[in-house]
Design goal:
This protein is an alpha/beta fold. Helices cover 38% and strands 22% of the residues. The longest helix has 17 residues.
């Protein structure tokens, strides 16, 4: 539901790019975006609107007008639907082995270190600063099994003003988890998850609900039946979101089918973990029946295209998910994905769709090599990075329209030593969007607003 609006207290004048409708880029030049005290967009006016000049002059006189310069563009804040916060120190390395080896050789030993709150604080502060710096206004974070460190991540998101969903990872199966890193039992994991939900919802600094709790069974290979059943029961008695991994790789998918005789999607449904607030990461091996189940539940998929290259052994069928009316957004999958930028994830989503359509084996003839009609456009990838992510989370974010939260970023194409070059005489608006997706780096993100609050300012 879109939030109500009050009297506008601040405003931004900019060339605005967003995508309320999948596949369609909306462009408004010199638009006046007004925002109320609660950080909700009140109006978006074009220069031809009767109130435009009067409002623009009033905000300018009061010192409450930000005017973006030529070569700067206002976009919705980016939404990362799948991010492993404790894996931040591992970003960009350890991607040379299969998923099950990667977890046990690198990832579980790293995540076990978060029993040390000093280490956790140092890493999480760096992570949140970096995500905001790259234009991620909303992040869906897996933490670790450690409740104190997970609470610390909540504290830092609140302190730094990042919208986030945070979950204490639940994983208790001794057959799927190392002795040095797992919950003591299903009961302790469920109790700690319930405690986290209460901590987030009662946090004195979180009165606006910027940070939300997430029930987080890691994935089927790490969870006992008792744990999944208990988390499903908890989900029915709370308003918390749910996040987990679904049919990520050949190994993970085959494990679930072997154990339960059905796909991960059906298993989550049977345990009460497939709801309108569920985000399923990866989901590369979902079939038509799975997509229908996900759509019927109102659940969402976090598409993580680059980490899928390393670990999934397959390309997610994005076009099929669109056709099935599945909610779908993008995830960086830090650190299974080697970079923190949702723009990079959007570019990878386009590339992955082309790989699926065109195929990869040159020995096979072109007409048999790929899956026809699989490609997605840059406008669709941008929609997933913004509007689609907001719809997946059932939050009024991702669109720059009245009633939505003013979560926004300013992209500056004129910063020194940039590769993001715009040529107004030859670049259309779609060209500009494509260049932003392909060439934006952290220094191009000059301003970041979350719920109307400026949390990153220009450095030049």
């Amino acid at each position: 539901m879109i939030g109500s609006t009050g009297t506008a207290l601040t405003a931004v004048v900019a060339s605005v790019l967003d995508a309320p409708t999948r596949g369609e880029l909306r462009v408004r030049h010199e638009a006046l975006v007004t925002v109320d005290q609660a950080g909700i967009i009140v109006s978006v006016l074009d220069p031809s609107d009767s109130e435009y000049e009067q409002l623009r002059d009033r905000f300018a006189r009061n010192g409450h007008l930000t005017e973006l310069e030529e070569g700067q563009f206002l976009l919705p804040g980016l939404i990362d639907l799948h991010n492993h916060a404790p894996q931040w120190p591992q970003l960009g390395k350890a991607l040379d082995v299969p998923l099950e080896v990667w977890l046990n050789r690198y990832t579980f030993p790293l995540e076990a270190k978060y029993a040390d709150l000093g280490f956790a604080g140092e890493v999480y502060e760096s992570l949140v600063d970096s995500m905001i710096g790259n234009g991620t206004t909303t992040a869906v974070y897996f933490a670790t099994t450690h409740l104190p460190a997970t609470k610390l991540l909540v504290d830092l998101c609140i302190e730094k003003g990042q919208r986030a969903l945070v979950g204490k990872v639940a994983m208790d199966d001794p057959d799927g988890c190392p002795d040095f890193y797992r919950d003591e039992s299903a009961a302790t994991a469920i109790a700690a998850t319930a405690e986290l939900i209460d901590y987030v919802e009662s946090h004195p600094g979180n009165r606006d609900g910027l940070v939300l709790p997430a029930i987080t069974p890691r994935f089927i290979p790490s969870c006992t039946d008792e744990l999944m059943a208990g988390l499903g029961e908890l989900a029915t008695h709370s308003s918390a979101h749910i996040q987990t991994h679904c049919s990520e790789s050949d190994w993970a998918h085959s494990y679930g089918v072997s154990r339960f005789g059905q796909t991960d999607t059906a298993t989550y449904r049977d345990f009460g973990l497939l709801t309108s607030k569920t985000v399923l990461a990866h989901s590369n091996f979902v079939n038509a029946q799975d997509l229908a189940m996900i759509a019927d539940a109102g659940a969402a998929v976090a598409h993580c295209p680059l980490s899928n290259v390393y670990f999934a052994n397959a390309v997610f069928p994005t076009r099929d998910a669109f056709a099935a009316d599945v909610h779908i957004g993008l995830g960086t999958d830090v650190s299974g994905g080697p970079g923190p930028s949702v723009f990079s994830a959007a570019a990878s989503a386009v590339a992955a769709s082309r790989v699926r359509e065109d195929g990869v084996d040159p020995i096979v003839t072109a007409d048999e090599r790929g899956v026809p009609d699989s490609r997605i456009s840059f406008a669709e990838a941008f929609w997933m990075a913004t509007t689609g992510g907001g719809e997946a989370l059932r939050l009024p974010i991702g669109v720059l329209s009245p009633g939505y939260s003013f979560d926004a970023i300013a992209i500056d194409t004129a910063v020194p030593e940039t590769d993001l070059n715009i040529w107004p005489d030859i670049d259309s608006s779609l060209d500009v969007l494509q260049k932003i997706i392909n060439n934006t780096v952290r220094r191009n993100v000059s301003r970041v607003w979350i719920q109307g609050v400026l949390v990153k300012s220009p450095s030049r």
